[in-house]
Amino acid sequence: MNSKSAIKGRGAQLNVRNRFFELSHEMRDDFLEFCNKEGEQVEHNKTEYLNVFPKTIVNKINSPDVGMQYSMNVYQGCEHGCVYCYARNSHEFWGYSAGLDFERKILVKKDAPKLLENLLKKKSWKAQTIVMSGNTDCYQPAENQFEITRACLKVFLKYKHPVGIITKNALILKDLDLLKSLAKDNLIGVSISITSLSEETRRILEPRTASIKKRLETVKILSDNGIPVNVMIAPIIPSINSHEILPLAKAAANNGAISIGHTIVRLNGAIGALFTDWIEKKMPDRANKVLHQIESCHGGTLNESRYGTRMRGEGKIAEQINNLIKLAKRKYFKDKVVQKKLNTTLHESFKTGQLNLFQ
């Protein structure tokens, strides 16, 4: 990709049209050329933090193949910039593009801890694991400034309520004290996403995430402190990281992970166009091969939405990937102790914020 046209530190290289808007705008080549000759900046590349005030913070998940019942997202949009991210489409509901807007306009929910506490105190609420980052990463760079995730973890601990976390950022270690306290009562499970062992791949695929070394160190530190860690090898992208399944699984096991999970990439909604543009610029030598192999995993399309097959794919390439995952589990995790289901028995006694001694 031409370094002059590349948007550094971002995954997506353009804003795609919002499907909910009748009108759209585009950057014409002649305008871009004029700006380049005049030395003018077309648009700034800084991240904006925008406060939003939702009425609720916990969402019920109705998709049968997601693996969680409830999720909460304290930030919308994600500065990590993973070009393949399925969550990009959700930014359109807020009036933005799934492309660069998703990475540069981060919506911040400062009331999240209060909204969470209000829910957990309800008499009608029955404890079930709530997963932070079901959509966007709760430990993206914004957390350094706002510490909303930390405040929410304090609420979960106060009410002895189970919580799951999915992240690809070593920033989670800032909350090690709270995670250790939650782990004492089996109230926490953590999934660390590690997509590649190659820093070169990581930098262009997930530009603002923690390094691979940092992520493996995070798995080890969490594990050494009694916090159960699952490593998500996700998504697996044919001819980009599909050859790394076994070494990734081995590295995860060696650093204390008790299990691995995976998905095969699916480029639903606006992400197909974003990914196609990205790979044609970043990996032009293999763009057609990768795109055709992804299509072969999803019935000839990049946009996969069928429950039951969308996460695991179909066809020979998908079968090979899924078989490699099965082999990795047998080879590196057969002696691992499986994490027990998170504890839902304590919360009822702590709905007032303290143990009821008169029950």
Automatic annotation (TrEMBL):
<dbReference type="Pfam" id="PF04055">
    <property type="entry name" value="Radical_SAM"/>
</dbReference>
<keyword id="KW-0411">Iron-sulfur</keyword>
<dbReference type="InterPro" id="IPR007197">
    <property type="entry name" value="rSAM"/>
</dbReference>
<dbReference type="InterPro" id="IPR058240">
    <property type="entry name" value="rSAM_sf"/>
</dbReference>
<dbReference type="InterPro" id="IPR006638">
    <property type="entry name" value="Elp3/MiaA/NifB-like_rSAM"/>
</dbReference>
<feature type="domain" description="Radical SAM core">
    <location>
        <begin position="64"/>
        <end position="310"/>
    </location>
</feature>
<keyword id="KW-0479">Metal-binding</keyword>
<protein>
    <submittedName>
        <fullName>PA0069 family radical SAM protein</fullName>
    </submittedName>
</protein>
<keyword id="KW-0408">Iron</keyword>
<dbReference type="InterPro" id="IPR040086">
    <property type="entry name" value="MJ0683-like"/>
</dbReference>
